[in-house]
Amino acid sequence: MKNRKMMRITTVAMAAVMTATLIGCSGSAAAPAPAEPAQTEAATSPIFPKGVYLNYAVEAENPEKSYFYVFDSEETGHTDDGTVGIGVPFACKQEDGSVSFSFGGDDGIWDVLTVDSVENGIVKGHFEDGLELVFEPVAGVDPEGFDAQNYLSEAAGGDLIYKAANGWTVKYDPKLFTINGGGPEVSFVYTGESAGTNMITATYNVDKDAKTAIADLAKSWGDKATTSEGIFPGTEDVTGYWATLPPEKEGSGLYSTAIARDYMDGYLMFELTGHNGEDEEANMAVSDALAGIIDSIEFVTLNFPDEYKTKDFYVFVMMNFYTDYKLIDIMD
């Protein structure tokens, strides 16, 4: 049978059990209250109702707790690794005492999870390799749209990751930016204290190449705009094309910068629109926040073992993990 350990779990962890002693409000300590018995439940189907489940190994120490099983229904779902932002789809058959999983596509191979216990909603079980795993339900989380990286980052107070459907990502501070739109055009609008509108608009289009798109944009800005070339952010050797309009010395303080690259038979452009006010410190804070988004641009490259490369798997990756649509072509 194929080795699927990397799909089922990527971290090893051990859960610690703690007990508490209750102290009365009188002058002397009350006798320890008896511990509440674990609510052992029958392992009846469905073992996993629709929801998100944190997955880790019983025997491991100090679990990272960054790997999840996301059940979109009682029959389908996907894994989601919060460390690398990648997972695999699965189909499942839930029966009393066991759940059979088919990972990565319809290849006819089913891995059986034997359920050892269900206590307070926490499922423990093992696959044929014998490694005992924990599946801990995550309360208050909707499996639709769940993203492990953003879930963990938000819990830690960090930046979130915007993942575009055609293969690029940026990081942004949700306390400072709101996102509008989606698909071929999305805007990151600065919501902190600032003068005027400050935002970045990302656009994907196939009506021209990147160099022409930048030249046309610079022309629309007027004689003060300049153009240049360099390496596009998030790459090592991809040519980027810049258009720059310096800040107005009088009036609104408007300034603009745009950068574009050839991308998927068209171009991808990030256009920054900003306004400077009289508060230099506030201007710098806005500029740094906008620059942080541009500097965080990354392009997703996914490498999977050959055994996972079914057409169904790539369709799932395209829809859920923002890779290049052209990956589908190799399966046709």
Brief digest:
This protein has 332 residues and is α+β, with helices and mostly antiparallel strands.
Features:
disordered C terminus, alpha+beta, Protein Transport Mog1p, Chain A, seven-stranded antiparallel sheet, 5 helices
* Strand fraction: 25-35%
Uncertain ranges: 1-38, 318-332
Helical content class:
10-25%
Question: Please, how many helices?
Answer: 5
- Rough outline: elongated
Could you tell me the number of beta strands? 18
Biggest β-sheet: count, sense, barrel?
A: 8 strands, antiparallel, barrel
Q: What's the domain count?
A: 2
**Class per helix and strand makeup:** alpha+beta
Secondary-structure element string: HEEEEEEEEHEEEEEHEEEEHEH
Average pLDDT score: 82
How far apart are the first and last residues' alpha carbons, in Å? 26 Å
Rg measurement, Å: 25 Å
Multimeric status of the protein = single chain
**Spatial strand order of the main sheet:** 1-2-3-4-5-6-7-8
